[in-house]
UniProtKB/TrEMBL annotation:
Belongs to the MipA/OmpV family. InterPro entries: MipA (IPR010583). It is found in: Cell outer membrane. Keywords: Cell outer membrane, Membrane, Signal. This is MipA/OmpV family protein. Residues 1-17 form the signal peptide. The keyword Signal applies. The keyword Membrane applies. Pfam families: MipA.
Length: 273
């Protein structure tokens, strides 16, 4: 689910200024192969239909790029909203977690301070530094705070580079860090759940691995299509020795399509979506 959110919120890449409708409504579908959790050796194929809505204020935009607010007058720095999610896991269906408590669905949200480091003269290539910090909440009879994470990212975007006109390519890489509470939720093993092949384990906070993501997207009229591939390594992670970590490197991929079904007649200039 987190990979799908990265795909849906970050895949539409910055472009040159253009006119777009003030608002859009539509629908979409995304499909991906995802591990039960980072470090799991079991994966599931997910098909996720979703509504699509975009609204573009002069100072606030909500669309496929996520939610972005212009809170200060600078073309080099943006304060955006970062979001993520983790799907539920039934422990009876996961060999490493059998007999343990189920993992509940989790959502993450928080600010992201983004810096434009470099842009080509024709604006076809752009390098950004993104600094998202998010709080995580377990969805269990309400929202329960589960910890925080920080995932600095270098984001390199290309428009019309070595591809037919209209295609956009993005490369994203960076480490992730999580506090002890969040790592413990996924990787600690309490004494009551310990067994011969799953000793008790207490996870600590800190570095939690490195990710590389590549994505392509294009819009055909009112239809948007995209695909992504991500490589994730947990080598050196604070919880690397947890008995729940069965795989330290893995690869995921997904595709998505959205259709705009209605839009406003009013057009506004948009320079970064």
């Amino acid at each position: 689910m987190k990979a799908l959110l990265l795909f849906l919120l970050l895949l539409a890449l910055p472009a040159q200024a253009e006119l777009k409708p003030r608002w859009e409504l539509g629908m979409g579908v995304a499909a991906a192969t995802l591990p039960d959790y980072r470090g799991s050796d079991e994966a599931n194929e997910m098909l996720l239909p979703f509504p699509y809505a975009a609204y573009r204020f002069d100072w606030l935009k909500a669309d496929r790029n996520g939610v972005r607010a212009t809170l200060f007058d600078s073309d080099k720095v943006e304060l955006n909203l970062s979001a993520g999610a983790t799907p539920p896991v039934k422990s009876k269906n996961n060999q490493a977690r059998q007999g343990m408590s189920d993992l509940k669905p989790m959502i993450e949200f928080g600010p992201s301070l983004d810096f434009k480091l470099w842009q080509s003269d024709n604006q076809d290539t752009r390098l950004d530094l993104r600094l998202p910090a998010r709080a995580a909440f377990e969805l269990r009879e309400g929202m329960h705070y589960s910890g925080w994470l920080f995932s600095p990212r270098l984001n390199l975007d290309f428009l019309n580079v070595g591809l037919p006109e209209g295609w956009r390519v993005g490369l994203v890489t960076g480490p992730t860090f999580q506090d002890k509470h969040l790592n413990a939720y996924f990787y600690s093993v309490d004494e009551q759940y310990a067994r011969a092949d799953r000793p008790a384990y207490s996870a600590s906070g800190g570095y939690t691995g490195w990710q590389f993501l590549g994505a392509v997207s294009r819009k055909f009229g009112k239809t948007w299509v995209g695909a992504y591939a991500r490589w994730d390594t947990l080598k050196g992670a604070a919880f690397e020795d947890s008995p729940l970590v069965r795989r330290k490197t893995y690869f995921t991929a997904g595709i998505g399509v959205t259709w705009t079904l209605a839009q406003s007649s009013e057009m506004v200039e948009v320079g970064d979506d």
